[in-house]
Write a structure and sequence with these properties.
Strand order of the largest sheet: 1-2
Largest sheet: 2 strands, antiparallel
Order of helices and strands: HEHHHEH
Number of strands: 2
Radius of gyration: 14 Å
Distance between the termini: 14 Å
Strand content: under 5%
Helix content: over 70%
C-alpha cells in the first residue's frame, strides 16, 4: 500500500512540473491514456531514483560537499532527463526538452511537491 501511495505522490509531483515547466510534456491531455502514462512515468522515475540515484550520489559525494549540496540539483535534473530518455526508449510519450531550464526547474518543482506530499504520508516506522 505504501508503494502505491508513494507512486501516486510522484505522479502528482510530475503532473505539477508538467503544468509549470514548458519543456516537460506528456502527449494528450486529460484522457485516461494521459493519466496512465503519468503513472507509468512515475514508476520509472521512482525506479531510477531508487537504483541509479544512490550510485550517482556516492560517486559525486565530493562535489555535493564542495558545493554545499547544490550539486544535488544537477543530479535530480539528470534523473529527470534519464526518465525522459528511458520513456522514449519504451515508446512512452513523456519528454523533457533540455537540461536547463526544463529538467533543472522540473526537478526543483518535483522535489518540493514530493517533500510537501511526504509531510502528509504517514511513515510506518
Amino acid at each position: 500500500m505504501r508503494f502505491i501511495i508513494r507512486t501516486l505522490a510522484a505522479a502528482v509531483a510530475l503532473w505539477v512540473a508538467i503544468q509549470f515547466v514548458p519543456g516537460i510534456q506528456i502527449a494528450g491531455a486529460n484522457t485516461p491514456k494521459y493519466w496512465g502514462t503519468l503513472l507509468i512515468v512515475a514508476l520509472i522515475f521512482g525506479l531510477i531514483n531508487a537504483i541509479v540515484k544512490p550510485i550517482i550520489k556516492t560517486l559525486g559525494c565530493a562535489l555535493i560537499v564542495l558545493t554545499l549540496g547544490l550539486f544535488l540539483l544537477v543530479i535530480n535534473a539528470a534523473m529527470l532527463l534519464l526518465t525522459s530518455w528511458i520513456s522514449g526508449q519504451l515508446d512512452i510519450p513523456f519528454h523533457v526538452a533540455n537540461f536547463y531550464p526544463a529538467a533543472f526547474w522540473g526537478a526543483i518543482i518535483i522535489s518540493v511537491v514530493s517533500w510537501l506530499l511526504g509531510l502528509f504520508i504517514p511513515d510506518n516506522d
